[in-house]
Specification:
There is one protein chain. It is built from twelve helices and eleven strands. The chain is α/β, with parallel strands linked by helices.
């Protein structure tokens, strides 16, 4: 079995909402990518396949993928004003539930929350936590500039831990994006480094120390985070501010609370990461429709077949447990 946990689908109404923001225009390229431009600068990419669930199912059939867990991509709802965030999150979650209902054997989803408004997010969580099709919560690497180690989020982390709902992180444009002109650097470089900053701040800030049951899936195989892990452990031993909120080095949390998709797509990197963390914490992903990938890059790994099967579906089955509601074969 193959379960894709990194798969983007959105609704036309959300694309229209983004286009309605001040200073936003659209450019369509010959490669069928459409780009939202903000104040004339490349902001966000989209592909038409993201809006068509039937195309997703056809691609899954072609690639031999049994189930996809769909989620939002950047920028989610965080950039909208408060009331609009709440409205859009509710609509997006209803669309995920409906898509899963139409394809009960093939589609599940990560719900969106109207963060950084914690009270509104807790209300939406109460509404959708046990809805059929919802297996976890999607969250950005920053919430319109608010970092995830902010203590105001503790009530949400506590609820997610209690409900055993994993988080799936996706990078957002970093606060320093304006210092990355040209070459699509905010996406190509800014995204992975914002992911790395996100999980580093959460660990050093004590989020996982205070909420040991919180499970957090890091996009793009942790980006630069795993390459920095030994350096972060040194920080814990050397600097007071790196150990003020935690009693164990970052590598402990990296192996206990964090999970990683495989969307770095590098055979050498994934093998290094599995060797560093252990195969039980890796989940197959394609980054559909932005990267043209299937499971062949997992099957080519120099790992035992049993470990590959854990990555392709076994770990997801265990992580999402009963919420996955796998079809009976």
């Amino acid at each position: 079995m193959k379960i894709d946990i990194h798969c983007h689908q959105i609704e036309e109404f959300f694309h229209d909402a983004l286009r309605s923001l001040p200073g936003v225009t659209v450019r369509v390229n010959p490669d069928r990518f459409s780009y939202l431009l903000k104040n004339g600068k490349t902001w966000l990419p989209f592909r038409p396949e993201m809006f068509h669930p039937d195309h997703l199912i056809r691609e899954m059939d072609r690639k031999g993928i049994d189930m996809s867990i769909i989620s939002m991509n950047t920028p989610s709802v965080y950039i909208f004003e408060k009331a609009r965030r709440v409205e859009l999150a509710r609509q997006l979650n209803d669309s995920i539930i409906a898509r899963a209902g139409r394809n009960p054997d093939r589609v599940r989803g990560f719900a969106s929350l109207p963060l950084p408004d914690v009270k509104a997010s807790l209300r939406e969580l109460e509404r959708i936590a046990d809805a059929p099709g919802v297996v976890g919560i999607g969250i950005g690497s920053n919430l319109d500039g608010v970092a995830l180690d902010d203590r105001s989020f503790d009530p949400l982390w506590a609820q997610l831990s209690e409900r055993d709902l994993p988080l799936f992180e996706h990078p957002m444009l970093p606060a320093f994006a304006e210092h990355l002109p040209g070459y699509a650097l905010p996406i190509r470089v800014g995204f992975p480094f914002d992911t790395s900053l996100c999980v580093t701040r959460m660990i050093y800030g004590g989020v996982f120390e205070r909420h040991p049951g919180l499970r957090f899936i890091v996009a793009h195989t942790g980006s630069a985070f795993l390459g920095l892990l030994e350096r972060l452990d040194h920080g814990f031993r050397l600097f007071h501010e790196c150990s003020e909120h935690i009693t164990q080095p970052p590598s402990v949390f990296a192996r206990k609370n964090l999970y990683y998709d495989t969307c770095v797509f590098s055979k050498a990197f994934i093998e290094m990461a599995v060797g560093e963390i252990g195969e039980d914490h890796f989940l197959f992903g394609t980054d559909y429709p932005f990267i043209i990938s299937d499971s062949s890059y997992i099957e080519a790994l120099g790992l035992p077949d049993g470990q590959k099967q854990k990555i392709l579906s076994g770990n997801a089955t265990r992580l999402f447990a009963k919420r996955l509601r796998l079809p009976k074969i």
